[in-house]
Design goal:
Blueprint: H1 2-34, H2 41-67, H3 72-100, H4 108-132, H5 144-161, E1 167-168, H6 175-178, E2 183-184, H7 195-223, H8 227-257, H9 263-289, H10 297-328, H11 334-364, H12 370-381, H13 387-402, E3 406-413, E4 416-423, E5 442-449, E6 452-460, E7 484-486
Antiparallel strand pairs: 1-2, 3-4, 3-6, 5-6, 5-7
Helix pairs in contact: 1-2, 1-3, 2-3, 2-9, 3-4, 4-5, 4-7, 5-7, 7-8, 8-9, 10-11, 12-13
Length: 488
């Protein structure tokens, strides 16, 4: 009962965090539209990318946290997305209350003071996420000082926001400074200069060192990992390398220009922030979708189909009710609403079918889904009458369902087993006394009937990409006959 209760609590908490994140994001985007005249094109584009990143954080984080509540990865994704959404909202709130509609919102300065701090909190959570990815644990106990360093970074970021004389210029895009309404922090309680400033300088040096070590941890973890884990870490490593590259470019540019403000420097700074902010959740999503890191292929497939159908319905409704209504001057009429509903009823069924095909390709890759393979296999053998036809079809089914490089069918006769069919069928199968011993590449499944062994099925994968039966991947029991049992 305790386990069930914990899972229910985790599901409720995950949905609550995701819902709160999306509501905050919607409020930020509404304010962005109202503040459009005070935002540059680059800033609006940055908000668009960040909005997509927040949605990915909420979606992937909710999936992982609800399914595996004991893993820190899902909760870190949820909290990072929420922190980023709050930073976007508070920046736009202050911009609305101080620039585009001055005095229209209460406590605009106090709320705006949170924009930079929540952005730094999101970055700090990202560092923890990268350090613990993908299993929610440190690479080894020797990396504990790096985790302590991240705690120091968070403390320093919070203290810096309370330093007197700190200018509140905004969060993600420094929108307050661009609009000419930047102001000193109203929360300043620590001195601007002196010992406190020296402490912050030390913390800054620790922050740089810790960030470099966090990026290095991905490559250290990948170096001693198996094929599957290397694939899972690849995208995250690329994001880390790109972030480090942008940091080096910004440092070099600052040395050349002596720290002078310019549009090019702002763009480099924006890319430095957006690369990890948008890249890390996308890397996690790729690990979940492409490499089935958390065994969520069925859940993800249903989510993708629902999202595509909802997007199609929204597009149809907007085209008919808003578009046609604007042309005819009858926007929002009941007749147009009925027409949109009727058109959606006709169009959504083929859209759903194509969305299902797209989701299958996204989740399962080039190999067909297990359900499609079994259905097709049943159709193939319906008109066959001999083992010469059935066995090659079975070997092909095994290869297509698992993405194996080669599949074989073995039959037992006279106390010995011999290979009867293989896929791909390249010449006559070589004689052998028994199937190859199972290892990381080869999986052997015994086929039995009422306790009597009839033969075996084998599947062999190439070394890259990792085989679908590798640890952490989904072997899809439905892809195998129900009477088949793996050999130990």
């Amino acid at each position: 009962m305790t386990v069930v209760a914990d899972r229910c609590w985790a599901r409720v908490a995950a949905w609550s965090l995701a819902g709160l994140t999306l509501l905050t994001l919607i409020a930020a985007l509404v304010l962005l539209v109202l503040n459009g005249r005070a935002m540059s094109g680059g800033s609006v584009a940055g908000y668009g990318i960040s909005a997509v990143a927040v949605a990915v954080y909420a979606w992937v984080g909710r999936l992982i946290a609800a399914r595996i509540p004991g893993s820190a990865i899902g909760w870190l994704l949820c909290l990072t997305g929420l922190s980023l959404a709050v930073s976007m909202f508070t920046e736009q709130y202050a911009l609305r209350g101080l620039a585009t509609a001055s005095g229209s919102l209460p406590a605009a300065r106090q709320v705006g003071a949170l924009s930079g701090g929540t952005l730094l909190l999101a970055v700090t959570l990202l560092l923890v996420l990268v350090l613990l990815f993908p299993d929610g644990r440190l690479p080894s106990r020797r990396w504990r000082p790096v985790l302590w360093g991240i705690h120091v970074i968070f403390t320093g970021a919070a203290l810096q926001q309370l330093q007197g004389g700190t200018t509140i210029s905004g969060g993600l895009t420094n929108a307050l400074e661009a609009a000419g309404v930047a102001y000193p922090t109203p929360l300043g309680v620590f001195p601007r200069h002196g010992l406190f400033s020296a402490v912050l300088a030390v913390i800054a040096a620790i922050a740089v060192t810790t960030a470099v070590l966090v990026v290095a941890s991905v490559f250290v973890r990948r170096r001693g990992a198996g094929a599957e884990l290397r694939q899972q870490l690849a995208w995250l490593g690329y994001v880390g390398a790109m972030t480090a590259a942008w940091f080096a470019v910004l440092a070099g540019y600052s040395l050349v220009t002596h720290g002078a403000n310019s549009w090019l420097g702002d763009w480099i700074w924006g890319l430095l922030i957006l690369t990890p902010v948008a890249g890390i959740p996308l890397a996690c999503a790729v690990a979940v979708l492409k490499y089935r890191l958390y065994d969520l292929d069925v859940v993800v497939k249903k989510t993708v189909v629902a999202a595509l159908v909802a997007a199609a319905f929204t597009a149809i409704y907007a085209l008919v009710v808003v578009g046609v209504g604007a042309v005819t001057g009858h926007a929002g009429s009941s007749a147009l609403t009925f027409a949109a509903a009727a058109l959606a009823a006709v169009v959504l069924q083929p859209v759903r079918a194509r969305a299902g095909l797209f989701a299958d390709r996204l989740v399962y890759g080039r190999r067909a889904s297990p359900y499609e393979v079994l259905s097709e296999f049943a159709g193939r053998i319906a008109g066959t009458y001999s083992s010469e036809e059935v066995l090659p079809a079975m070997a092909r089914m095994v290869a297509e369902a698992t993405g194996a490089q080669r599949a074989e069918v073995w039959l037992r006769s006279g106390g010995a087993e011999r290979i009867e069919a293989a896929w791909p069928a390249v010449g006559k199968p070589a004689p052998a006394a028994h199937p190859a011993a199972p290892d990381g590449r080869i999986r052997v499944f015994a086929v039995e009937h009422h306790g009597e062994r009839l033969g075996a099925l084998t599947a062999a994968a190439s070394t890259r990409p990792p085989p679908p039966w590798a640890p952490g991947c989904r072997a899809s029991p439905t892809a195998w006959p129900h009477s088949a049992a793996p050999l130990t």
